[in-house]
Design a protein that fits this description.
With 277 residues, this protein is α/β, with parallel strands linked by helices. It folds into two domains: 170 residues, Rossmann fold; 98 residues, Transcription Regulator spoIIAA (2-Layer Sandwich), CATH 3.30.750. It is 37% helix and 16% strand. A hairpin with a 2-residue loop joins strand 6 and strand 7. The radius of gyration is 19 Å and the shape is globular. The chain starts with a strand and ends with a helix. The relative contact order is 0.13.
């Protein structure tokens, strides 16, 4: 099956307001890249689209969908994006009703019931860490065993007027060794330009070394989404990822987006020692 991960249809001016000309466009999604890498390793064809970077209007977007023969489309969304995300899903369902629509990201994970009640254009919501539940969902769709979807942990959907919410099992999240290498090659890496306040040298790219957060701050959802247990990538895997960014994409700088990069001092020291070599 062909799987499309994408950002919602939203104009750049709406995203960045009056600062849109100088805001850069470093909207690379580490979460989607990880998900795409995980799914592709298990035999699925994956693509990625960021309509604003590609300067897609509605006409170009619908043509792209027609040519892509996608079976499933997944969009991750924050609360600020959710209205545009729902509008995009409505457009998909209106023109390609057989495509299965899947919402991921913070908003759907935290507000799953409200989101499903507000619209009929979202078939499934992935809650929390997405790789395992999304893969299990794809397996059910591929084999047409839709009744088994009820047994997937970390998924929410409507069954008639009833809303089914299967909370994620934090104990079943990916461990350090299984954290995937992001599928950088499906992203338009040469089009990402980070804003000047984040960058010393160009090009600079986003990267994550860990998942989870030991804290439960009121202003952040990291522990609710990824759990309280912090899982670091193996140092060898991380260094290989950095080498890939440097050799293939000419990276001159990296932006670490971890919630608590320095939580494990020993891991940081080991990483720095190995990286120096």
């Amino acid at each position: 099956m062909n799987i499309l991960f994408q950002e919602p249809l939203v104009e750049r001016k709406i995203t960045f307001g009056k600062f849109y000309k100088g805001a850069g466009n470093n909207t690379f999604s580490c979460g989607i890249a990880d998900m795409a890498g995980y799914i592709r390793e298990r035999g699925y064809n994956v693509s990625y689209l960021e309509p604003s970077i590609e300067k897609f209007d509605t006409t170009k977007y619908l043509k792209y969908l027609s040519l892509g023969n996608f079976r499933v489309i997944g969009i991750g969304s924050t609360t600020l994006q959710i209205n545009k995300t729902i509008s995009t899903f409505k457009l998909i369902k209106k023109n390609h009703p057989n495509i299965t629509t899947v919402l991921g990201g913070v908003h759907g994970s935290i507000m799953s019931e409200e989101t499903l009640r507000s619209t009929s254009c979202i078939d499934y919501i992935i809650l929390g860490e997405g790789e395992k539940p999304f893969f299990e969902l794809l397996e059910c769709i591929k084999s047409k065993q839709f009744k088994k979807i009820k047994n997937i942990e970390g998924i929410a959907f409507k069954e008639g007027e009833k809303i089914i919410i299967n909370k994620p099992n934090f104990n079943n999240f990916l461990n350090s060794e299984n954290l995937p290498i992001p599928a950088y090659d499906i992203f338009p890496m040469n089009k990402y330009i980070s804003q000047a306040t984040y960058t010393k040298k160009y090009p600079s790219f986003s990267i994550t070394c860990s998942r989870g957060c030991a804290f439960n701050c009121a202003f952040c959802c990291a522990s609710s989404i990824s759990g309280r247990k912090v899982r670091y990538k193996s140092i060898n895997k991380l260094i290989n990822e950095i080498i890939l960014l440097k050799k293939v994409y000419n990276a001159k700088g990296l932006m670490f987006h971890d919630s608590t990069f320095t939580l494990n001092n020993q891991w940081v020291e080991d990483f720095c020692m190995h990286y120096q070599r």
